[in-house]
Design a protein that fits this description.
alpha/beta; Leucine-rich repeat, LRR (right-handed beta-alpha superhelix); 2 domains; 7-stranded mixed sheet; 7 strands; rod-shaped; Leucine Rich repeats (2 copies); coiled coil; LRR_dom_sf
Length: about 375
């Protein structure tokens, strides 16, 4: 294990030394490269002339002295003179921008010597397939933009010899699916934009998905249509039922009105009947009370009779000796009753006479009061 660790540490140290040496080499190479790109007097003069003719000439960076030349921001067309002025700079120019200028196929022959160009803008120019023949010598070309030109399927194979090409832009050209497919088969490492093959595959997939969506939508529509028809039928039936119900309700309301009137009449009759029943109930209650009192009285009498009956036999013998005395007393009682009745009659006559006297007395009082009043009036008058 210790030996393995020592060997591992030694390997890491060796790799670190190699990385350090590689870094120094890269930095040194960059410095040498920067030192190597030194403009010659002829190149200095060519840069000045190109700028004088309207070209924008810029160094890529402070470290990289390669040039980017652009005419798309300059006034006027790109003339042959302007393109010919770039020939002395073939060692330096890596980016060339001619977009939005009416550059022709023949004019592209003037840049065949710019063999170090890696990025070429030809969008919105007047070139056709014939102009692409003049690009065969640009072996360093990595980026080519022919957007908005008249390039067709026939022109793309002319780019097959450009081994460094990585991106090709063909928007709004006459290149179609077949041309892109053939170019991709010959140059699978090149990204062609737009990629009509991929777009077509995506389009076909979208079409298939859309067909499925359409089929589903048609099925849904059929289901909805069936449901709608059923709903319409149900609505029609419901409307008819509602109308029938409304008519029945109207008829019922009329019947209810008649019934209500009859009920009101019956209610009045019922109230009268209730009142009569209450009166009858009162009479029945009075009769019942009288009957209950009579029953109680009868019960008391029966009870007394029962008690009397129980003692009658025992008292019969004892009562016999006294019977005669009782009869005598009865006779005396009858006489007393007669006398009492006579006294009662006499008392009633006396009471009647007393009442008459009271009346006479009241009349006399009234007469006295009247006379007294008259006297007072006369006395007052006599003064």
């Amino acid at each position: 294990m210790l030996i393995f660790r020592n060997r591992h540490a030694s390997s890491l140290k060796h790799c670190s030394h190699l990385l350090a040496l590689l870094f120094i080499f890269i930095v040194s190479s960059g410095a040498l490269l920067a030192e190597e790109i030194t403009f010659t007097p002829e190149e200095e003069a060519a840069i000045a002339k190109a700028r004088e003719l309207g070209a924008h000439v810029l160094e890529l960076s402070q470290e990289d002295k390669h040039l980017e030349v652009a005419y798309h921001l300059s006034d006027g067309d790109v003339t042959n003179e302007r393109l010919e002025a770039l020939a002395p700079l073939s060692r330096l120019i890596v980016h060339l921008n001619l977009r939005n200028k009416p550059v022709t196929d023949d004019q592209l022959a003037l840049i065949t010597g710019l063999v170090n160009v890696s990025k070429l803008h030809l969008e919105k120019t007047s070139i056709t397939d014939a102009g692409l023949d003049h690009l065969a010598n640009l072996k360093a070309l990595e980026y080519l933009n022919v957007y908005g030109t008249k390039v067709t399927n026939a022109g793309l194979p002319k780019l097959n010899s450009l081994d460094s090409l990585k991106k090709l832009y063909i928007w709004e050209t006459e290149v179609n699916y077949d041309g892109v497919k053939a170019f991709i088969e010959a140059n699978p490492e090149v990204a062609i934009i737009p990629n009509l093959v991929v777009e077509r595959e995506q389009l076909l997939a979208k079409i298939e998905a859309t067909k499925q969506e359409k089929a589903a939508a048609e099925m849904k529509l059929a289901e909805n249509t069936t449901q709608l028809e059923a709903a319409q039928a149900a609505t029609t039936a419901a409307t008819a039922e509602a109308e029938a119900t409304a008519k029945a309700t109207t008829d019922k309301e009329a019947q209810n009105k008649t019934a209500a009137e009859a009920a009101a009449t019956a209610q009045a009759a019922a109230q009268a009947a209730i009142k009569a029943a209450e009166e009858a109930q009162k009479q029945a209650d009075a009769a019942a009370q009288a009957a209950i009192a009579a029953i109680h009285k009868a019960q008391e009498t029966a009870k007394a009779a029962a008690l009397t009956g129980l003692s009658a036999e025992n008292q019969k013998q004892a009562a016999a000796p006294k019977q005669e005395a009782a009869q005598k007393i009865l006779a005396e009682t009858e006489a007393a009753k007669a006398a009492s009745e006579a006294a009662k009659v006499k008392a009633e006559a006396a009471a009647k006479q007393l009442e008459e006297l009271k009346v006479q007395t009241e009349e006399a009082k009234k007469q006295l009061e009247s006379t007294t009043k008259t006297l007072e009036e006369l006395t007052a008058k006599a003064g």
